[in-house]
Structure formats: structure tokens, C-alpha cells
């Protein structure tokens, strides 16, 4: 009986293909850096006049995309097919820019004649072929009979499970939400050239996560996930403050509060995971490329939403002196910060005591709430929002979603639900634990 492989796989890339894949990646990184720096004016020549966005913004976004694709081509070897397909699509999408330069006879990059600009048009299809061949994407297309769903399944690590399929749908939604927040929060804000400082800050929040995701996925580790989040808070809000000249006292206060909180929490979480060795929340997620990527992307969105009010107040042109809102907001922040710090310290001391091994904490603030640290975090972000209230205007009021987002994420998605499930699996059925659950609120402490 004749047998055969029903799902033939593309051949492994040879040395020449690998070299050309890396060269293409380095070329894109170099081109992206040029988009953002010395060649921005020349790249404007390739932005078609019908594009409904500012030309300089298009150049910057293209540069960021090229850097991301270049890094992916060099480092994401296991996902090279998927990266190759995305790169080829990117080359196709920017081809109208080359056509526009030829049709409108725009001089740039030494293409100062119609003949030179015409010859340049033929290089774009070669780039598409380069991306597909060097990454074995073309072989994968043929092997899968151009079934993109199967190709994506193979690229993210095998069986196309429901969770992976849902994750693929979630990723663009996260990006769209981030873009909408960036657009709304930029109204009435300062700009660097034509780029709003607030929008740039949001972009940096996502970019830092994606850059950190690459080594995290390759090494299959989550050890620096929380630390990356804290560094992102500090770096992004510091860049926003630096680029917003003439900071007022409200902006300085907000910057200080965010930096203090992020430094304390990042240090605490990093020490905790170093001691524990791992965070079991990531065990099922890490092997999946798209699901693990989504976790890092969600952290970028988390930073964006939680810090939105502070970022808007720092980058806005509508400054006001400190007032009663600043005083009340600061006091609320102090209360929330104190609750978070004290509850974390109490739990750390409890876990450090060998006599408490295998037990759950029900003393101190933990006798008032099953998750007092999360309550403190929600309260402190409410305080930040109160401080920012007087300078919000127009679409900037979207930042009021900040404490709501923190609350929903901690109580419905990543925080409390996971910890409650883990606790129920460990102590569920024990009389003392069940009594603790019955008498102790999940979040808001009882007086």
C-alpha cells in the first residue's frame, strides 16, 4: 500500500538561505533606523499624497515596523515562515510609495531621473521574493497548498488549537485599542515635529514589550516580565517628561509618584520571582508564540491605560497650578501605596517563616481582604487620576478609564481569578480556609 505524508513540510533552510534571511533582517533594521533619523526627509518622497495621515508620521511608523520585522527575521528562527510572510506583505503594502515617487517625479535617494525611478520599481518584487525564499515561506505556502491557516498553525508551534486561534484574533484588537487611546490622549498635547508626545509614549510602551518578548520566547522564560513592566513605566513617563518642556508642579508630582510606585513594585516582584524560580501563571502560555506575545502586548496596553491620566497631564499644553484635586489625589495615592507596600511586606514575612510552609496567610491586612495588595494598587491609581483631573479636556477624558481598567484586569482577568483558582486547588475543602473565604471579602477590606 502506497503511503505518503498528507501534510508535507517545507525543507529546512540551507546555509545560503539563512545568511540571506539574516542579511534581510539587518537591512530592514538599518532602513528602519534611517526612517527614524537621518533619512526621514528623503523617505517622505515615498509617501503617496493620498495617504490620510501626516507624511512624517507614516515614515516613523514604517521605520518602527521595519525594525520589528528585521529583529524578527534575525532572531525568531522558529517563526521565520510567519515573519517572512508578514515581511513580504509589508513590502507589497509600501510598493505604492515607490510608484508614487515615479509618477510624481520626486527626487530622492539619488533617483533623480525617470529611468532611475522606473528601474527602482523592479526591486520591490525582488524584495518580496527575497523575504519568501530566505524564510522558506514560499516552500511552506506550496506545502500547505496556500492554506494560510495551516501555515500560521505551524508557525506558532503545531496544532492550531482554539486558544491559539482566539489569540490571533485578540492581537490586532489590542493594537487597535492602543492606537485609539494614543489618538484620543494626544488631543491638545505637545508634539515633537508632527508626532504627539503622548502617542509616542504609547508606542514606546508596546515596543519595549515586543523587544523583551523576543529573548523571553527564545529562552522560554518569564523571569523578567514584571521587571520589564516596571522599567517601561519609568522609561516611558521619563521620556514624556523630558520631551514636554516647561514641566509644572503637577507634572513633576505625577512623574514622581509613578516612578516611586514602579521602582518599589518592580524590585519587589523581581526579587520574588528570583527566589521562586518561576511564575506558574505562564506555564501553559510560554510554548505558544502568539499567546505569549499577547501577554506581553497586554502588558503594553496595561502600562498605557494605567498611566494614561499621568501621561496626559504631563504632555498636555493645558497646565494649571496645584489645587485641592492635587492634595486629595496625593492623599488617596499615599493610602493606596501604603496598603500595597504593607500587605506585600506582611505576605513576604509570612512566607519566609518555615512554620507557615503550605499555609495561607490570614493575618494583618490579609485578615481584612483576601487581596489587599490589589486593593491598594487600584486606590493609588485612583489618586493619580484625581490629580490629573483639572487639566483634562476633550477626548483626554478617556483617561478616566485608567482606574476602571486596573480594577477589571485585576478582578476579572489576570490577578484575583488566577490566584483564587490556585488557592482553591491547594486549600479548597479545608475547614479553616473555607471559613476564611466566607468571612473575608475578596477585594475591599472590611472595617
Question: Can you walk me through this structure?
Answer:
This protein is mainly α and 447 residues long. It has two domains: 15-154, no CATH class; 162-439, no CATH class. 68% of the residues lie in helices and 1% in strands. The protein contains 19 helices and two strands. Helix 11 (225-243) crosses helix 13 (289-306), helix 12 (249-276) packs parallel to helix 15 and helix 14 runs parallel beside helix 16. 37% of the residues are buried.
Please tag this protein with its features.
447 residues, mainly alpha, 2 domains, two-stranded antiparallel sheet, 68% helix, 1% strand, disordered N terminus
Topology:
Blueprint: H1 15-36, H2 40-43, H3 55-75, H4 80-103, H5 114-121, H6 123-134, H7 137-143, H8 148-155, H9 162-185, E1 191-192, E2 195-196, H10 197-219, H11 225-243, H12 249-276, H13 289-306, H14 308-315, H15 324-352, H16 372-388, H17 401-413, H18 416-427, H19 431-439
Antiparallel strand pairs: 1-2
Helix pairs in contact: 1-3, 1-6, 3-10, 4-5, 4-6, 9-10, 9-13, 10-11, 10-13, 11-12, 11-13, 11-14, 12-14, 12-15, 14-16, 15-16, 16-17
| Radius of gyration over C-alpha positions, nearest whole angstrom | 25 Å
Order of helices and strands: HHHHHHHHHEEHHHHHHHHHH
Q: State the share of residues found in helices, binned by percent.
A: 55-70%
Low-confidence stretches: 1-9, 156-160
SS elements, strand count? 2
Physical arrangement of strands within the biggest beta sheet:
1-2
Span between N and C termini? Answer: 77 Å
Largest sheet: 2 strands, antiparallel
Which structural class matches the secondary elements? mainly alpha
Summed up, the helix count is 19
Strand percentage lies at: under 5%
Amino acid at each position: 500500500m502506497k503511503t505518503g505524508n498528507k501534510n508535507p513540510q517545507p525543507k529546512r533552510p540551507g546555509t545560503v538561505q539563512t545568511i540571506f534571511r539574516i542579511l534581510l533582517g539587518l537591512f530592514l533594521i538599518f532602513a528602519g533606523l534611517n526612517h527614524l533619523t537621518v533619512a526621514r526627509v528623503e523617505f517622505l518622497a515615498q509617501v503617496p499624497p493620498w495617504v490620510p495621515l501626516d507624511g512624517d508620521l507614516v515614515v516613523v511608523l514604517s521605520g518602527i515596523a521595519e525594525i520589528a520585522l528585521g529583529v524578527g527575521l534575525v532572531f525568531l528562527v522558529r517563526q521565520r515562515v510567519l515573519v517572512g510572510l508578514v515581511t513580504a506583505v509589508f513590502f507589497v503594502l509600501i510598493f505604492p510609495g515607490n510608484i508614487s515617487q515615479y509618477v510624481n517625479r520626486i527626487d530622492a535617494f539619488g533617483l533623480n531621473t525617470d529611468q532611475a525611478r522606473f528601474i527602482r520599481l523592479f526591486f520591490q518584487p525582488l524584495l518580496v521574493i527575497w523575504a519568501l525564499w530566505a524564510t522558506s515561506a514560499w516552500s511552506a505556502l506550496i506545502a500547505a497548498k496556500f492554506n494560510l491557516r495551516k501555515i500560521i498553525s505551524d508557525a506558532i508551534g503545531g496544532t492550531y488549537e482554539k486558544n491559539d486561534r482566539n489569540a490571533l484574533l485578540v492581537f490586532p484588537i489590542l493594537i487597535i485599542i492602543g492606537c485609539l487611546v494614543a489618538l484620543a490622549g494626544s488631543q491638545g498635547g505637545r508634539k515633537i515635529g508632527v508626532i504627539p508626545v503622548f502617542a509616542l509614549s504609547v508606542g514606546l510602551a508596546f515596543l519595549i514589550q515586543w523587544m523583551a518578548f523576543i529573548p523571553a520566547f527564545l529562552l522560554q522564560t518569564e523571569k523578567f516580565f514584571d521587571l520589564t513592566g516596571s522599567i517601561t513605566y519609568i522609561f516611558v513617563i521619563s521620556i514624556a517628561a523630558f520631551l514636554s518642556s516647561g514641566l509644572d508642579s503637577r507634572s513633576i508630582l505625577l512623574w514622581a509618584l509613578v516612578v516611586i510606585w514602579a521602582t518599589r513594585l518592580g524590585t519587589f516582584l523581581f526579587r520574588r520571582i528570583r527566589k521562586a524560580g518561576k511564575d506558574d501563571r505562564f506555564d501553559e502560555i510560554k510554548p505558544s508564540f502568539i499567546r505569549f506575545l499577547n501577554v506581553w502586548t497586554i502588558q503594553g496596553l496595561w502600562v498605557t491605560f494605567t498611566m494614561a491620566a499621568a501621561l496626559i497631564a504631563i504632555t498636555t499644553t493645558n497646565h494649571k497650578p496645584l489645587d485641592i484635586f492635587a492634595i486629595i489625589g496625593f492623599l488617596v495615592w499615599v493610602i493606596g501605596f501604603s496598603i500595597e507596600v504593607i500587605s506585600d511586606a506582611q505576605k513576604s514575612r509570612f512566607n519566609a517563616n518555615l512554620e507557615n510552609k503550605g499555609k495561607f496567610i490570614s493575618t494583618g491586612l490579609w485578615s481584612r481582604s483576601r487581596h489587599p495588595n490589589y486593593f491598594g494598587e487600584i486606590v493609588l491609581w485612583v489618586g493619580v487620576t484625581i490629580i490629573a483631573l483639572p487639566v483634562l479636556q476633550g477626548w483626554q477624558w478617556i483617561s478616566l478609564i485608567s482606574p476602571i481598567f486596573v480594577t477589571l484586569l485585576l478582578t476579572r482577568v489576570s490577578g484575583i481569578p488566577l490566584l483564587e483558582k490556585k488557592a482553591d486547588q491547594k486549600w479548597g475543602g479545608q475547614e479553616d480556609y473555607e471559613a476564611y473565604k466566607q468571612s473575608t471579602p475578596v477585594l475591599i477590606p472590611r472595617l
